[in-house]
Amino acid sequence: MSVERIQQHFRDSAAVKLEALETLSMPIAAAIDTMFAALANGNRILACGNGGSAADAQHFAAELIGRFERERPGLPAIALSTDTSVLTAIANDYSFEQIYSKQVWALGQPGDVLLAISTSGNSANVLAAAEAAHEREMIVVALTGKGGGRMQDVLSDTDIHVCVPSERTARIQEVHLLTIHCLCDGIDAMLLGED
């Protein structure tokens, strides 16, 4: 394996993150404010995605329920990608497209937030979850890339779109992970104060 090839991955990742710094800071700050307000009002955050984005949804929920970098009481977050019985029952009895929307309908309440993660912005089940969230009077925070895909058409004026300026899935996922860490840190800072 070429060391130069490995180093290029680091350079490419850093370049996308630096480019995203300017364009994503404001929507991430808005997402933090929205999520904190929901949590402060006794609401919760539901998160979903497919593949690596499902892992990101689980990572986000784990950081809120457990802790990020500082000790605090757990915060209510649910990764909708974790219950295999629910996922397989819905996929089998209805369709894979409904695996998240059915859960949003069952678990979501007005004032909750849906963190919808799709690197392309075109994942049918994530789009359906966003539509269900609107029907449940929830706010959607969407993490996408590749120009935002069809997610742009689903989001309302009160939703927040964090669209990574890249076409490469790996780079988008890397910025999504950094965004998740920013969300967790921002919520903690609002809850516990800046350290």
Automatic annotation (TrEMBL):
The keyword Amino-acid biosynthesis is annotated on this UniProt entry: no
Compartments, record wording: Cytoplasm
Cofactor comment: Binds 1 zinc ion per subunit.
Residue sites binding Zn(2+) per the record: H59, E63, Q173, H181
Keyword Isomerase: yes
InterPro entries listed in its UniProt record: GmhA/DiaA, Phosphoheptose_Isoase, SIS_dom, SIS_dom_sf, SIS_GmhA/DiaA_subfam
CDD domains reported for this sequence: SIS_GmhA (cd05006)
Keyword entries, A-Z: Carbohydrate metabolism, Cytoplasm, Isomerase, Metal-binding, Zinc
EC number of this enzyme: 5.3.1.28
Cofactor dependency: Zn(2+)
Chief subcellular location: cytoplasm
Chain ranges of the SIS domain: 35-195
Molecular function (Gene Ontology), one example: zinc ion binding
Record's catalysed reaction(s): 2 D-sedoheptulose 7-phosphate = D-glycero-alpha-D-manno-heptose 7-phosphate + D-glycero-beta-D-manno-heptose 7-phosphate
Binding site for substrate: N50, G51, G52, E63, N92, D93, S118, T119, S120, S123, Q173
TM annotation in the entry: none
Function text: Catalyzes the isomerization of sedoheptulose 7-phosphate in D-glycero-D-manno-heptose 7-phosphate.
HAMAP family per UniProt: GmhA
Note: The reaction produces a racemic mixture of D-glycero-alpha-D-manno-heptose 7-phosphate and D-glycero-beta-D-manno-heptose 7-phosphate.
Subunit annotation: Homotetramer.
Name of the featured protein: Phosphoheptose isomerase
Organism of origin: Paraburkholderia panacisoli
Gene, per the UniProt record: gmhA
